[in-house]
Amino acid sequence: MDRYEQSCAALGVCLAANVPVVLWGPPGQGKTSVIQQLAADLDLHLETVIASIREPSDFAGLPVVDHASGSVALAPPRWARALASAERGVVFFDEMSTAPPAVQAAMLRVAVDRVVGDLPLPVATRVVAAANPPGVAADGWDLTPPLANRFCHLEWALPAATLRDGFAFGWPSVPVPAVHDLESFADAKRLVGVFLGSRPELVTRVPDSASEAGFAFPTPRSWEMAAKVYATATRAGVPGAVRTLLLSGCVGAPAAGEFLTYVASLDLPDPEELLADPDGLSIAGRRGDVVYAVAASVWAATDARLTSERWVACGRVLARIADGGHADIAYTTARRWVKARPANALPDVSSLRSLEPILRELGRFADLAPGL
């Protein structure tokens, strides 16, 4: 898979995950054409908006006075009304790097919230943009950091071999995986949260220079986008190089590299296996962040399919964690565990002994240990 194919696969993942994406490349690289073909292949309504020739009101809405009610509404432009009517569509912001800062500011709410003026666009509306690097753009501007932080950034260029084959046989379609898995997204968010708990300096790191801040950098918002594309890419089985492109496009290459290296080193046990055999959990020698990830994944699996048996097994896992010297982690998870107790479910005696200090602090020991 060459770099162009990797970029196509990454674009498809962004669309499947509904993460706004911007394609960066010199003029004439087929960015507009590939979006047009993509919309046709997926039967999506396409609205192309040339950002450089638009006014802020084309995104923020035009104030219209309602004299009868004495109120002012922000009327959306035609392209937004067409997308709202279509229900399944793509809005393509072309020439985004030639939009002045005032227009970029008006685009902020459109990019993430899908709201134009007072008109909410359908949730399924995908947001794609194309931009030329400021050095080759016509009267170009750096993207403002708030706008740049709302997009996954992908490089886009046509290699000679791709151009040759495209002219001879036609352009390949962008593969968009049919993945909609909320459980995988929740797992990915937990991984990101555990990672950032061990590397808090990477939660937010805005670059010092304005030019670098116009691309990907880590913030809580871009980490959430990273979790979405990571979950979608993993579930779709895309190659590791594509996942690296996606994570780098959301939070920048340094932060993405650290996260992927960290995930590869975790070696987490399957939570379903732990629920089936809680006593098989070994805590000795495990780092605190790994233990936290284990506790979070076991509780998530329990909560997703809650039964009395699974709830009791989760308590045994928490007891093992507390006995292993991580009572603080057991306490954090136990707060959710006790609130979700199925009717008449009680922990076994050994779990009660291990979790007694935690349950007493939570004020639930008497409820869960009647007669003791």
Present the secondary structure layout.
Layout: H1 3-17, E1 21-24, H2 31-42, E2 45-50, H3 57-60, E3 62-66, E4 71-75, H4 78-86, E5 89-94, H5 101-113, E6 115-116, E7 119-120, E8 126-131, H6 145-148, E9 152-155, H7 160-169, H8 182-198, H9 220-236, H10 240-251, H11 253-266, H12 271-276, H13 288-304, H14 308-323, H15 327-339, H16 349-361, H17 365-368
Parallel strand pairs: 1-8, 1-9, 2-5, 5-8
Antiparallel strand pairs: 3-4, 6-7
Kindly describe this structure.
The protein has 372 residues and is of the alpha/beta class. Among the domains are: 21-150, P-loop containing nucleotide triphosphate hydrolases (Rossmann fold), CATH 3.40.50.300; 271-368, no CATH class. Helix content is 53%, strand content 11%. The chain has helices at residues 3-17, 31-42, 57-60, 78-86, 101-113, 145-148, 160-169, 182-198, 220-236, 240-251, 253-266, 271-276, 288-304, 308-323, 327-339, 349-361, 365-368; strands at residues 21-24, 45-50, 62-66, 71-75, 89-94, 115-116, 119-120, 126-131, 152-155. Strand 3 (62-66) and strand 4 form a beta hairpin. It is elongated, with a radius of gyration of 25 Å. The mean pLDDT is 91.
Distinctive features:
372 residues; alpha/beta; Rossmann fold; 5-stranded parallel beta sheet; two-stranded antiparallel sheet; 17 helices; 9 strands; 53% helix; 11% strand; elongated
Main beta sheet: strand number and arrangement?
5 strands, parallel
Order of neighbouring strands in the sheet with most strands: 2-5-8-1-9
Distance between the termini: 64 Å
Tally the helices. 17
Shape: elongated
Structural class, from helix and strand content? Answer: alpha/beta
Supply Rg. Answer: 25 Å
**Architecture of one domain, CATH level 2?**
3-Layer(aba) Sandwich
Strands, count: 9
Helix percent band = 40-55%
Please identify the top-level CATH class of one domain.
Alpha Beta
Q: What is the beta-strand fraction?
A: 5-15%
Q: Secondary-structure element order, as H and E?
A: HEHEHEEHEHEEEHEHHHHHHHHHHH
- The CATH superfamily of one domain is P-loop containing nucleotide triphosphate hydrolases
CATH fold-level assignment of one domain: Rossmann fold
Task: Write down the overall mean pLDDT.
Answer: 91
